[in-house]
Amino acid sequence: MDRLSELITGWIKKGNNDLKSAKTILKYSPELTDSICFHSQQAAEKYLKVLLILTGEEEIKTHDLVYLCKIINNKFVVPKEYFEICSVLTQYAVTVRYPMVIEEPTQKDARLSITYANKVIRWVKKEITDFKKTLF
């Protein structure tokens, strides 16, 4: 496996781990809404960074998913819906980890964050598949 494939596989594995963590916490400790939302955001971020790699960009150290979408949009068409989804998820990257910065997410927010992460992941997987087709 070449370096690029290893890097992509690593980001995908970490993203899958974050999504699994969010789902596990929801199932066994649903009151930990901040952790669920955080891991959902992280899962989406890691998958978006795969597309960032495919654009040829250097690794960008940011948790702002909207910003990542803007960069990715230069090579891939990012549907408007994903900018909105990423705007919601981005708030869970940093501020949700600290007390009294934002309102504590509800269980509805936590479930929605998992739904949004799943949507981003499905979209990224489709884009990866389409990208591979253009190579052959």
Helices and strands in order:
Elements (H helix, E strand, L loop, with lengths): L2 H26 L4 H22 L10 H8 L7 H11 L16 H29 L1
Helix pairs in contact: 1-2, 1-5, 2-3, 2-5, 3-4, 4-5
Looking at this protein, list some descriptive labels:
mainly alpha, Four Helix Bundle (Hemerythrin (Met), subunit A)
Query: Which architecture would the CATH scheme give at its second level?
Result: Up-down Bundle
Domain count, please report it: 1
Q: Structural class, from secondary structure content? A: mainly alpha
State Rg. Answer: 15 Å
CATH first level: Mainly Alpha
**Which of globular, elongated, flat, extended, rod-shaped describes the shape?**
globular
Please report the distance between the alpha carbons of the first and last residues.
18 Å
**Helix proportion of residues, in percent?**
over 70%
Largest sheet: none
Strand content: under 5%
